[in-house]
Every structure is written in C-alpha cells, then in structure tokens.
Amino acid sequence: MVSTYAGDLSPADAWELLSHEGQAVLIDVRTQPEWQYVGLPDLSPLGRKAALASWQVYPAMTINPEFQVELDAAQPNRAAPTLFLCRSGVRSRAAAIAATAAGYGAAYNVAGGFEGDSDSEGHRGRINGWKVAGLPWRQG
After folding, report:
1. What CA–CA distance (Å, rounded) separates 139 from 44?
2. pLDDT tens string 82-105
3. Domain residue spans in the chain?
C-alpha cells in the first residue's frame, strides 16, 4: 500500500527532527481561537517559531481556501520536511495528505497533535500529544 504522505511522527520525534533539520518547518493547522485560548508549540529553544495556517476556517470549519497559499508562504522548499500539527492529529493528517498532493515530498503528521486524544472522561491533554510529551509550549 502506498502512503499518501510521509507518515506520522510522535511529538518527541517531531521535536528531534526540528532540532536537527534547519529547513524543517512545523505548521500548526488549528484555528485562531485554538491558538489563542489553548496555546501554541514554542520553538524558541530552537530559535524558530511554528507557522500558523488553519486547515479549516472557524466557525464553519470548512476547508480553508487559502491553505495552499499559506502553506507555500510558510514552507517554500517542497523537498524539506514539513510537519503538520493540530489538536489531535486528524486535521494535520488531512493537511499532510493535501501537501503531498501539492508536491511536498516530506509532509509529516504529528500524531496525537497538540492536546492529544480524549480520555475515557472526554478530556484531552492526559493521554498523548505535544503538551503531554512535555515539549515547550506557551499560551497564545
């Protein structure tokens, strides 16, 4: 079976790749309210910032018609690693698939996303994801 994108990376593996590959870009595909109220990955220890390009437009949650333009601005090098992050890994997987279809050769999904999967009580931020992995983040 042929993969439709480069694959899933754990948050720790994503951090490792971003740490060692200067051309790699992390693109947070969540919405503006999520960035503002939930927080953002903090790449300042690496001397960088995550790029922000919503996959879906809030509040309708329709596909962002400007996504490709925003992606090209954030990562002009289609051969370099491009990592996509959302809340739990669903939207970022869709973004990685779309990026691959647009010619990005190393489009990765950060599995578990920023907040991770819901636990048995419906809460996020307890099972997996960027925050649970203890990676740097800041309030938006």
Report:
1. 13
2. 999 999 999 999 999 999 999 999
3. 9-135
